[in-house]
Amino acid sequence: MANLKHEFDIIVLGAGLVGVAAAVALKLQGHRVALLERGKAGAEPAGTELAEWDSRIYAVSPGNVAWLERLGVWQLLDAGRFCGVDSMQIWGDDGAALELDAYAAGLANLSVIVEGNRLQQALIARLGSLEVPLVDEAGVNQVDWNADSVMLHTANGETYTAALLVGADGASSWLRGQADITVKRHDYAQMGVVANFACERPHQSQACQWFRGNDVLAWLPLPQQHISIVWSVDNARAQALTTLDADTLAQEVAAAGHHRLGQLTMVTPVQAFPLAMQETSSLVKPGLALVGDAAHQVHPLAGQGVNLGFRDVQALVEVVSDRQSRRRPGDVFVLRRYERARKADMMSMRLLTHGLSSLYAHPAPWLRMLRNGGMQCLNRMPALKKQLMQHAVI
Prior knowledge:
By secondary structure, this protein is of the alpha/beta class. It has a domain at about 5-50 and about 115-185 and about 275-355: FAD/NAD(P)-binding domain (3-Layer(bba) Sandwich), CATH 3.50.50.60. The chain is about 35% helix and about 30% strand. The protein contains 10 helices and 22 strands. It has helices spanning about 15-30, 60-70, 115-130, 175-180, 235-240, 245-255, 305-320, 330-360, 365-380, 380-390, and strands spanning about 5, 10-15, 35, 55-60, 80-85, 85-90, 95-100, 110-115, 135, 140-145, 150-155, 160, 165, 185-200, 205-210, 215-220, 225-235, 265, 270-280, 285, 290, 295. Strands 6, 7, 14, 15, 16, 17, 18, 19 and 22 form a 9-stranded mixed beta sheet that branches. A hairpin with a 4-residue loop joins β10 and β11. The longest helix is centred in the last third of the chain and has 30 residues, at about 330-360. The chain is globular, with a radius of gyration of 22 Å.
């Protein structure tokens, strides 16, 4: 077996969107960086022909779009494959409605909807242009925590050493377990059903969301008169939806959205993923920082999961690249600054998503009246709506 040793300043473990973005951002700050994926990386190499549509989409906030532009990533996307959200219409479960309009808030858009595989490919392409090594199927099977470094060992005998290890290996993070960082998990007993559809009528760059008790349906605009849906339903209902043929599912989705966009035609296979909330006991330990789903997981009804992860990376890059600090990137005193910087954002997003999910899941008539009355009241307060929208686009 090989006995090769590789030394870097920082190693990122996990080659999803947040992990690749972390490697790019850290490299641009002058760090010697490597990106490892324990299994098979999800990205297709630059230049590979992508499927026509990807049903896993992301609503990227304008603040994160601007950050990805600064990283030199967003420019690599085909402008014809993403769509800005100009407005959003939200309905409660008893006739209440809330309309959010970017123009009214002085914003270019509320978010930008982009397909996951295309954003991943752009990130991988930028990583390659910076000559950051990407070790796919690295087979990492052991980690050693030393006083001033972290060592990753692979099944073929190679060793990777760094002052800081960034854990970006997802909600089921192997690295988090190796670091003995515990996690609290709340299982919603629901799944998010996702698919893309061509629409009979133009969506006019408007997102739609319906709260229907324990059932939340979102329609998100895509280019070329398409939409992507995320339908959060209980496990039994998800199983039923995913076994429908394409035409029947399209009819179900159109009916659930009151046929706002006319007839729908499914253009991607339907997929479903379990919904849960996770909170870790810590984001850091000496030589380790967790980011993205390894650090936190929230209900997707606000579409903020990847945005939280990108903001994790920005905060981490800022503290480990602070030229005023003479400490090593893996020093726990440095990393505690990252943890403190992220706590408020993570807590507020957990409270928002879990609170809304719980509020609409509860069947009590007085709560139904309260939540719908609150939505109607907010809709009549343009100043407060503007403030909320400006906060959400960060």
